[in-house]
Write a structure and sequence with these properties.
Layout (H helix, E strand, L loop, with lengths): L1 H20 L3 H14 L4 H13 L3 H14 L4 H13 L3 H13 L4 H18 L7 E6 L8 H7 L4 E6 L4 H9 L2 E5 L3 H6 L9 E6 L19 E4 L2 H10 L9 E4 L19 E5 L8 H14 L4 E5 L5 H13 L6 E3 L5 H8 L4 E4 L8 H8 L3 E5 L13 E2 L2 H9 L5 H11 L2 H13 L3
Parallel strand pairs: 1-2, 1-3, 3-4, 4-5, 5-6, 7-8, 7-10, 8-9, 10-11, 11-12
Helix pairs in contact: 1-2, 1-3, 2-3, 3-4, 3-5, 4-5, 5-6, 6-7, 8-18, 12-16
Length: 444
């Protein structure tokens, strides 16, 4: 059965290739769409799709397709070659050379090698391009890189990048030897170790703080005199960091506030309207103050038993989770409260389709990525007035007590386009990229 399927895939690819060669681009596009409805990820067909788009002079759309493909296989010859050709057409000659050189390393055809070398030499001689990319290493612990991958993809055209999932301290030594710039995602024991190496005095070091770290001793265990740039993702977290480390000599450390960006392309909007489905997305722990969410839901359920509450996440705190179970049992809400488990990137998009209101009752939040993601998908935010939330969101999305939250939910006011536009205007991934690029570029 599997063998027959592989034969079918090969036949379809051959048909697509023939259609492209015959310049029957509309038919090729149609067949590519049919193929992707059966096979979700195929590097060869991504490449074909990009070729069709380039033949239609849709270079920026082609670039998006190729970026998806290169995230799957960074060293694929066809993808790198097509990216090189695309950037040459867009007159982005430094990027063109970068991708040509990667393609060259993965080329098995002597004639094509010669052609690529000719292209590289022509660009260098004609446009006086000199490529010496700086190397950036990203250090992060297993499972804590969810905010990092978009950044790496966003700067990989300009820098040679490596992401190291650190399980042993010697991984940090090895990565720092290789790199010009060292990025420590989260202020934890990794930056504590790296900042105290003799090698740290010779490297440019960036650390990014997300939140929880400022409530720990980690921020006091770093040799900040050896860190060049500190990125903090929320103003109130910056205030707490500065207050808590006021007595520490931080040398020439520069502190930057850069909000996390949302990749809106990953979140198709669902044009929603007033409904009955409340959602919570994220970890179940003390900080998230879920008893308040339950009180809000119970009040709504007493008004109309059509209201439902969906939890998507996993428990980090047994006491909180057991309280939720107890609350559901005591109030006989078995048919109205549902636990949907942890959601990966794809299943999260599907989950948002059934949610009308994202209720965040936390006692401390920055941007609150779950709120931003859901708003990007058209979901109405219901956000508790905790420290940090007003740095990011206007008062119209914020409640102070159960009664205000209930009033916001039963209100007729609902505008999916407005919620998405707010994120687009204030927390786009491109804005985050630009800020981070400037920080890296200005390292001295």
């Amino acid at each position: 059965m599997q063998q027959d399927f592989e034969i079918l895939k090969k036949q379809i690819k051959s048909q697509i290739s023939n259609l492209i060669n015959d310049n029957k681009l509309e038919e090729a596009n149609s067949l590519i769409s049919e193929y992707f409805s059966i096979v979700k990820e195929d590097i060869e067909v991504y490449s074909m799709k990009a070729i069709v788009l380039m033949l239609e002079n849709k270079f920026h759309e082609a670039e998006k397709v190729l970026k998806i493909a290169i995230a799957i296989d960074k060293y694929n010859f066809d993808i790198n070659y097509n990216l090189a050709y695309l950037n040459e057409k867009l007159k982005m000659y430094d990027k063109a050379i970068y991708y040509y050189e990667i393609a060259l390393l993965n080329c098995n055809d002597k004639d094509i090698e010669k052609q690529i070398n000719n292209s590289i030499n022509y660009i260098k001689d004609t446009y006086k391009i000199d490529i010496h990319k700086k190397k950036i290493v990203f250090f992060v612990k297993q499972g804590m890189d969810s905010f990092l991958n978009d950044i790496i993809n966003g700067i990989s055209d300009e820098y040679e990048t490596r992401k190291i999932i650190v399980t042993e301290y010697n991984h940090i030594d090895e990565g720092m030897k290789w790199a010009d710039i060292c990025w420590f995602e989260w202020c934890d024991e990794l930056i504590g170790y790296g900042s105290r190496l003799e090698l740290s005095k010779k490297k440019k070091i960036i650390c990014r703080i997300h939140g929880y770290e400022v409530y720990t001793e980690f921020i006091r265990n770093v040799n900040w005199k050896n860190v060049n740039e500190l990125i903090i993702v929320a103003p109130h977290i910056r205030r707490i960091f500065e207050d808590s480390t006021e007595d520490i000599d931080k040398g020439k450390l520069k502190i930057n506030t850069v909000f996390c960006g949302v990749n809106l392309d990953a979140y198709p909007i669902n044009n929603k309207q007033k409904g009955f489905n409340l959602g919570y997305l994220g970890y179940i722990n003390f900080k998230k103050n879920l008893p308040l969410t339950l009180d809000i839901f119970k009040k709504l359920h007493d008004i109309d038993n059509k209201y439902k509450l969906y939890f998507a996440g996993e428990s980090q705190d047994e006491r909180t989770f057991r309280y939720i179970q107890y609350f559901v049992k005591e109030n006989e809400l078995y048919n109205s409260v549902q636990f949907d488990g942890w959601k990966d990137a794809k299943s999260k998009i599907e989950w948002f389709k059934k949610i009308n209101y994202m209720v965040i009752s936390s006692i401390d939040e920055g941007l609150c990525y779950a709120a931003a993601e859901s708003m990007s998908s058209g979901v109405k935010p219901i956000l508790h007035n905790c420290e940090g939330i007003k740095d990011h969101y206007p008062q119209k999305y914020i409640f102070n007590n159960v009664e205000e939250a209930v009033s916001m939910i039963i209100s007729d006011e609902y505008n999916s386009i407005e919620y998405r536009k707010f994120i687009q205007d204030n927390y786009s991934l491109s804005r985050e990229y630009n800020n981070i690029r400037e920080i890296i570029k200005n390292l001295k």
